[in-house]
């Protein structure tokens, strides 16, 4: 028997697929809408205060990214184009780690907002999804530049 919540979940997942061409799927155990990270999509998660600055800079550069906001955790997840291994050196990973930013690895999944997430405020879109995605490298570059401005380096 399909419940109203299940129907809303399926409608939203279908919307992600149809309108935004995101190959979303529903995890039957958790009832979350998932987006696979890999060949077509990348993602980077960071503290919301840094995320707001990165979002502003990307928007000014006409490279807006869909952003999932996790209000309770105060984290933003940017959905991007696919990961480019050349961009992700050990130095870049270390710098992002110091900024509390993490890049989703190939084969991982990002949870997209569902109607119940939005109703409870648990997971919402800070920037709604759209088809054109910025390259992950552009989001990483903005994160590093803005993050390094925020925190003084110790010698």
In short:
Helix content is 39%, strand content 21%.
User: What Rg, in angstroms, do the CA atoms define?
Assistant: 16 Å
The 3D shape can be described as: globular
**Beta-strand proportion:** 15-25%
Compute the number of helices: 5
First CA to last CA: what distance? 62 Å
Low-confidence stretches: none
Strand order across the largest sheet: 6-3-5-4-8
The count of strands amounts to: 8
Instruction: Report the average pLDDT across residues.
Output: 91
Helix proportion: 25-40%
Structural class given helices, strands, pairing? alpha+beta
Characterize the main sheet: 5 strands, antiparallel
Q: Would you list the SSEs in sequence order as H and E?
A: HEEEHEEHEEHEH
What's the SSE blueprint?
Elements: H1 4-20, E1 25-26, E2 33-36, E3 42-47, H2 48-60, E4 67-70, E5 75-80, H3 90-98, E6 102-103, E7 109-112, H4 115-120, E8 124-127, H5 136-150
Antiparallel strand pairs: 1-2, 2-7, 3-5, 3-6, 4-5, 4-8
Helix pairs in contact: 2-5
List keywords for this structure.
single chain, about 160 residues, alpha+beta, globular
